[in-house]
Write a structure and sequence with these properties.
The protein is mostly helical and about 250 residues long. Helix content is about 70%, strand content about 0%. It folds into 3 domains: about 55 residues, Multidrug-efflux Transporter Regulator, Chain: A, Domain 2, CATH 1.10.1660; about 60 residues, Multidrug-efflux Transporter Regulator, Chain: A, Domain 2; about 100 residues, Antibiotic binding domain of TipA-like multidrug resistance regulators (Globin-like). A hairpin with a 5-residue loop joins strand 1 and strand 2. The longest helix has about 35 residues. This is MerR family transcriptional regulator.
């Protein structure tokens, strides 16, 4: 779908889609020889998710951090977005009820205490927004995205390609011993890759990350796409690597 068609379908401007591409928030999967952007169904699904977050008050920077997070899960995000929208609707309903009551007060039909004039206002944080930030916008993700965000688009593609190659190699080794020479060489590549591209990982942090691959089903699901049991293999290999290199 060309950019004009995508913009017309969604009801946003072409300029907005160009801006999303420029900041790396939504890059179309295809580019014709003439330079025309072509949006795939996957791109449109991502755009839908972006617009949900935007409707909920997230900044474009926050949205990019969230959807770029390695632990981001679309289905889980939809559930959180639904809860956030219900929370927002509840607040709006209270505000509308307060306005209706205030109109009656202005017409002299009812009386209102000062306390009643502010009963519809709620300045507390949306608990579901806090949950979203906790899961996908934590400091580690912020640091990682800040580092990657400084790279050119070509460099970012190279990082993604290298990531895929490392995981493919690890998947081919997942039925061997995590302590084997080949497994440890492959896991060292992963350790060096993380430290070179996504921040600073101590050996303890690296070992803890491996455990998270198994404890957090979102990580497990994404990692095991490369091969069933890869998350378990990586956890064990990362633990061996961390313990051996501490000595």
């Amino acid at each position: 779908m060309k950019v004009k068609e995508a913009a017309a379908l969604v009801g946003i401007s072409v300029r907005t889609l160009h801006h999303y591409d420029k900041i790396g928030l939504l890059t179309p999967d295809h580019l014709t020889e003439s330079g025309y952007r072509l949006y795939s169904d996957r791109n449109l699904e991502t755009l839908q998710q972006i617009l949900f977050f935007k409707e909920l008050g997230f900044s474009l920077k926050q949205i990019k951090e969230i959807i770029d997070s390695p632990s981001f899960d679309r289905y889980e995000a939809f559930l959180l977005q639904r809860n956030m929208l219900l929370e927002k609707r509840s607040r709006l309903d209270k505000m509308i009820a307060l306005i209706d009551k205030t109109i009656q007060y202005e017409k002299g039909e009812i009386s209102m205490t000062n306390k009643e004039k502010f009963e519809g206002f709620d300045f507390s944080d949306n608990p579901y927004e806090q949950e979203a930030r906790k899961r996908w916008g934590d400091q580690a993700v912020d640091e990682a995205n800040a580092k990657v965000g400084k790279l050119s688009k070509e460099a970012q593609k190279a990082v993604a390609k290298r990531w895929d190659a490392i995981y493919t190699n690890l998947a081919s080794l997942r039925n061997t011993s995590p302590a084997s020479t080949d497994a440890q060489a492959a896991i060292k590549e992963w350790y060096d890759f993380l430290n070179n591209n996504f921040g600073t990982y101590s050996l303890d942090t690296f070992k803890g990350l491996g455990q998270m691959y198994v404890d957090d089903e979102r990580f497990t699901k994404n990692i095991d796409k490369y091969g069933e049991g890869l998350s378990l293999f990586m956890r064990d290999a990362m633990a061996v690597f961390a313990d051996q290199n501490k000595k």
